[in-house]
């Protein structure tokens, strides 16, 4: 299960960590760090989890990590936005961005476009 937070016995998220790793085993997740996450991030992660297809396949050779604006390199993210990094066996890293509603964007360009259209960010041309 891809998620961010410790899994309790029924697979629900808790708020102990801001990053989680999944090493391809759908039944286990291990904390990558032990930092607290914001309420906005916790809410986004719950929405992401609720949108996942039941029985969705992660893949045996992937490791997934969720990161928020408290993590190094992601301070530019707005509160409530989350990045999912999927590490492939080949070494390639796929990044997916999630807004506070749990909608996924596959590129930074898409995120900037959404921010610009909503008036959150003004981009210079």
Automatic annotation (TrEMBL):
Keywords: DNA-binding, Nucleus, Transcription, Transcription regulation. Residues 1-44 have a biased composition (Polar residues). Residues 1-54 are annotated as: Disordered. The keyword Ligase does not apply. It is found in: Nucleus. This is MBD domain-containing protein. It comes from Xanthoceras sorbifolium.
């Amino acid at each position: 299960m891809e998620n961010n937070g410790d899994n309790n016995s029924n697979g629900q998220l808790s708020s102990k960590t801001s990053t989680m790793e999944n090493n391809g085993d759908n039944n286990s997740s291990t904390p990558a760090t032990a930092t607290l996450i914001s309420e906005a991030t916790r809410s986004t992660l719950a929405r992401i989890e609720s949108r996942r297809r039941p029985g969705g396949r992660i893949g045996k050779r992937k490791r997934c990590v969720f990161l928020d604006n408290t993590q190094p390199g992601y301070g530019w993210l707005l509160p409530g936005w989350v990045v999912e990094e999927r590490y492939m066996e080949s070494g390639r890293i796929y990044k997916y961005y999630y807004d506070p509603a749990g909608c996924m964007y596959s590129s930074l360009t898409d995120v900037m476009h959404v921010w610009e259209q909503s008036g959150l960010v003004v981009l210079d041309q």
